[in-house]
Amino acid sequence: MDKAHGRGKSALKDGSSYEGEWVEDKKSGEGVECWADGSRYDGQFRDNSKSGEGTYKSPVGSVIYQGGFLDDQMHGRGSYHFPNGLAYTGQWARGCMHGRGRTTWSDGKKFEGCYENDLEHGLGLLTLPDGRVYRGTWVHGKHEGPLQRCDTKSDSLPQGVFKGG
To answer: Region Disordered: what ranges (predicted)?
Structure first.
């Protein structure tokens, strides 16, 4: 039986397609996968899975991820732009924000620090739209313990202690 090997294109009845490199009937190497809804992935494949560097775009471009993939999941370093204007750049593990990263909101608020399973977790810096900067510890997405103001916009740097956000 013949197996796809080299460069080629495959189109399925559901409207999805793949054009790129094949090895022993598997998507492997550089390629572009498109779905009937208009979303697409342009990047590296290994053994029929998105693995390596690539870019995913949703049908209208409202969601864009550019970075590392492993076994069809965001993994390694990458940037994700959400439809609501939120953007995250940093480390990913098996599809989750995990490790060091930075989230920026459309209003200018920023968080830079550690993430675990898509939530702020560990040490971080929170910058508010007015320029105030706070340093503290986050646990499962909520700041806990001392939260210290560390910008230079004020002579007095107030501190607070928070539990559960």
So the answer is: 1-29, 145-165
- Report whether 103 contacts 87 (CB < 8 A): yes
Looking at the DSSP bridge assignments, the partners of residue 89 are 79, 102
Predicted model pTM: 0.86
Are 19 and 27 in contact by the 8 Å Cβ rule? The answer is no
Q: Which of these, 56, 52, 74, 53, lies nearest to 65 by C-alpha position? A: 56
Residues 6+ apart with CB under 8 A from 9: 17, 18, 19
Half-sphere exposure of 24 (CA within 13 A, CB side): 2
pLDDT digits (tens, 9 = 90+) for 6-24: 999 999 999 999 999 999 9
Residue spans per domain, the chain: 1-65, 84-165
DSSP 7: E
Question: ∠43-72-93 over CA atoms, to 5°?
Answer: 105
Taken in order 20, 25, 26, 28, is the CA torsion positive or negative?
Answer: negative
